[in-house]
């Protein structure tokens, strides 16, 4: 979806305080091809529920690093079945067992950490976006998660020219807890991202 920065800023002012479903409906109506990405981390169920309530056929791209917790995998299976997600699974080209034998999970200051992140997250993500070629990308980015995300908004443009739509951008954990309770949705907090190490660190997907 081709929008200028001025148009994005104007829309962000309008969208502040607007219900997520209205923002999602607007994006789907004005875009050509939408996708939603997920890693089934805590509170991801909110964006998955909100998008599928508007359009159940929206492709749900899951780039599985292969290092998720058992709780995350069970949570993912529950949501896929319960919400009828149109899941599109992407995994690294190398198995986690192979990588564990030759590299393991490098620490953040290890020179191999960049290669690790490329293998388990960035390459599968690029492959997914190349195959689906969306112009609208729904995410659950929220203000306060990282310094980079604090500089974004409900609408932002990716480096590849895809419109990122984060309908819950201004929502707090308390508000999301209320949303999940209202809709009877489960949450799961036992989550592990091997590329970040620290919770407030970017892996490179949104930079």
TrEMBL record:
Example GO biological process: sulfate assimilation, phosphoadenylyl sulfate reduction by phosphoadenylyl-sulfate reductase (thioredoxin)
Q: Which InterPro entries match?
A: PAPS_reduct_dom (IPR002500), Rossmann-like_a/b/a_fold (IPR014729)
What pathway or pathways are given for this protein in its record?
Sulfur metabolism; hydrogen sulfide biosynthesis; sulfite from sulfate
Where would I find the Phosphoadenosine phosphosulphate reductase domain in this sequence? 35-187
* MF-aspect GO terms: phosphoadenylyl-sulfate reductase (thioredoxin) activity
What Pfam families would the database entry show?
PAPS_reduct
This protein's superkingdom?
Bacteria
Alphabetical list of PANTHER family matching this protein: PHOSPHOADENOSINE PHOSPHOSULFATE REDUCTASE
State the similarity comment: Belongs to the PAPS reductase family. CysH subfamily.
Recorded protein name is Phosphoadenosine phosphosulfate reductase family protein
Q: Which organism is it from?
A: Flagellimonas hadalis
Q: What is the lineage of its organism?
A: Bacteria, Pseudomonadati, Bacteroidota, Flavobacteriia, Flavobacteriales
């Amino acid at each position: 979806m081709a929008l200028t920065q001025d148009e994005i800023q104007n829309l962000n002012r309008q969208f502040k305080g607007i219900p997520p479903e209205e923002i999602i409906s607007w994006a789907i109506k004005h875009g050509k091809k939408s996708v939603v990405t997920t890693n089934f981390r805590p509170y991801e169920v909110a964006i998955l529920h909100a998008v599928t309530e508007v359009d159940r056929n929206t492709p749900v791209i899951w780039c599985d690093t292969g290092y998720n917790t058992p709780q995350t995998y069970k949570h993912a299976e529950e949501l896929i079945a319960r919400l009828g997600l149109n899941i599109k699974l992407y995994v690294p080209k190398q198995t986690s067992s192979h990588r564990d034998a030759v590299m393991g999970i490098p620490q953040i200051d290890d020179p191999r950490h960049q290669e690790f992140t490329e293998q388990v997250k960035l390459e599968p993500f690029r492959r997914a976006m190349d195959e689906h070629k969306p112009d609208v990308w729904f995410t659950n980015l929220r203000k306060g998660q990282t310094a980079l995300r604090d500089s974004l908004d409900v609408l932002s443009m990716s480096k590849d020219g895809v419109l990122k739509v984060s309908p819950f951008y201004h929502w707090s954990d308390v508000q999301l807890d209320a949303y999940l309770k209202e809709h009877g949705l489960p949450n799961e907090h036992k989550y592990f991202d091997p590329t970040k190490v620290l919770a407030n660190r970017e892996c490179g997907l949104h930079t």
